[in-house]
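Problem 12. The chain below contains 123 residues. Write out its predicted structure in token notation.
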Amino acid sequence: MSHNGIKVLVVEDEILIGLMLAKNLRSAGYTVGQVATMGEEAIERADIERPDVILMDVTLAGDINGIEAARQIRVRYGTPVIIFSGYSDSVFLEQAKKADPVAVLSKTGPFTDIIAAIEKAVG
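Solution.
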């Protein structure tokens, strides 16, 4: 399946994970720019690049975490956000819901879950 034309913004403070994720998304046919590492940068890049969907880690460098960055992006631009994290406890899940994400995924989950969430977000 071709995903040409779908722009994905990857936001991940662990740069190696972000680069690997971006590479895998490009291999799947998505358009992916540079990986953002801070919440503030994610908001700025969402404004400039206008991605179709954002893959957002929760723990980020800077003053704004991924949940708050995702919330601000949804309010300002309406861009669908997929939150992915190593956390899975109930307190985290309640916080993540405040960002109104398309999906909340585990970083350790299969890559096919990310593809499915992106397709749900843009479909």
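Discussion. The mean pLDDT is 90. Students who got a different answer should revisit the alignment rule from Section 12.3.
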